[in-house]
Amino acid sequence: MAKFVALLRGINVGANKRIAMADLRELMTGLGFSDVRTLLQSGNAVFTTRNTLPETLARRITSAIDQQLGLEVGCLVRNGDELQAVIDDNPLGDVATNGSKLMALFLSKNPDPKLLKAHDPRSLAPEEIRLGDRVIYQWCPDGVLAAPAASGFAEKYLDVTVTGRNWNTVTKLATLLES
């Protein structure tokens, strides 16, 4: 058995795409996942299941949410090692002094090198944006709302799905995976 984290995209923001975390836990348990726990109301869940490709798990969760709740919601899944690598590889740890202002923008895949060369998100804020393995790190010293929209930029130009979490949430998810 392996542990995973599911990162749902764009739920419980405004009046649309509302999912109660109890319903999400029930849905995921119904998929055969065990030890399902959620964090916050923004679509973060950790769970245990057979060691399966994260992309396969993401498709299963996305399909179940569509079929059972009638919502089209993007979902990215990372295993425990992948989430820990995001934490360990953080290139902005020396400058990012506030976890609520450091974002990990999780990508559905690594961008195509040709697209990345033509549309590098680091050009938006060269001192504050770094690339990792299927993640964009973004330091937002003046707050997330004042920072360049690296997430939207990546989706528009790099043919990826993106869902962001602040660093406090990322580290809490890692702690949940360890328990």
Structural summary, described in words:
- By secondary structure, this protein is α+β, with helices and mostly antiparallel strands.
- The protein has six helices and eight strands; from the N terminus they run βαββαβαβαββαβα.
- The chain has two domains: 2-80, Alpha-Beta Plaits; 89-178.
- A hairpin with a 4-residue loop joins strand 2 (34-39) and strand 3.
- It has a four-stranded antiparallel β-sheet, with helices on both faces.
- It has helices at 21-30, 54-69, 80-88, 113-118, 150-158, 167-178; strands at 2-9, 34-39, 44-49, 74-79, 102-107, 129-132, 135-139, 162-166.
- Helix 3 crosses helix 6 (167-178).
**Largest sheet entry:** 4 strands, antiparallel
* Global geometry: globular
User: What integer value in Å does the Rg equal?
Assistant: 16 Å
Instruction: Give the SSE order as H and E letters.
Output: EHEEHEHEHEEHEH
Q: For the record, give the distance between the C-alpha atoms at the N and C termini, rounded to a whole number.
A: 14 Å
Overall number of structural domains: 2
Strand proportion, as a percent range, falls in 25-35%
Find the count of extended strands (DSSP E, 2+ residues): 8
Helix content: 25-40%
Task: Note poorly predicted spans.
Answer: none
* Oligomeric state as shown: single chain
Chain-averaged pLDDT: 94
